[in-house]
Amino acid sequence: MTDKPSIHRPRIPGGHWQNVDLLAYKQVGSAPFRDVTRQVLFDDPALGCELRYFEVAAGGHSTLERHEHVHAVMILRGHGRCLVGEEVFAVAEQDLIHIPGMTWHQFRAAEDAALGFLCMVNSTRDRPRLPSEEDLALLRRQPDVAYFIRT
Ligand code: MN
After folding, report:
1. How far apart are CA 92 and CA 148, in angstroms?
2. I need a surface site. Which of 33, 41, 124, 130 has the fewest CB within 10 A?
């Protein structure tokens, strides 16, 4: 997005907005994920935070990761499930999800529907960390978590 976003950016059907670039979720090969796009909706430095929109295609998933910064998430479109800490939740439109710092998290779209969500973060934030084999072993002690996570 440019430094000076236009005041009004109408919605374009299909999970897009005028003058908002459709970006890759992450650099391919930098972390495991499947079929995720990223759009930065608000990032004026005066805010101190950014509002992004991520869309996970049907059957896709975000990276299993954790970091010091917090995520404030609102599901905008579709449905799916997410892992936060050691719990897996079914999530649907307009649900709110708070992801505390240093908490493992991953989003998965349903097999038959995309999952689109808003995600607010601090402008200045640490880089996401991926789980080690030891972290994965700990997570996998819980059968529902073991079944859910994708790496
Ligand atoms: Mn994250």
Report:
1. 17
2. 124
How far, in Å, from the CA of 120 to the mean position of ligand 1?
Answer: 10
8 Cα distance to chain centroid: 24
pLDDT at position 30 is 77
Q: Which of 141, 143, 46, 54 lies closest to 106, judged by CA?
A: 54
Taking residue 2's Cβ as centre, other Cβ atoms within 10 Å add up to 8
For the chain, what are the domain ranges?
16-148
Q: How far is the CA of 37 from the centre of ligand 1 (A)?
A: 14
> 128 CA to middle of ligand 1, Å?
6
State the catalytic residue, choosing from 119, 121, 145, 149.
Answer: 119
R_g over Cα of the chain: 15
Cβ atoms 81, 148 nearer than 8 A: yes
* 49 noted as active-site residue: no
Tokens of 102: 């240093």
Distance 140 CA to ligand 1 centre (A): 19
Class of domain 16-148: mainly beta
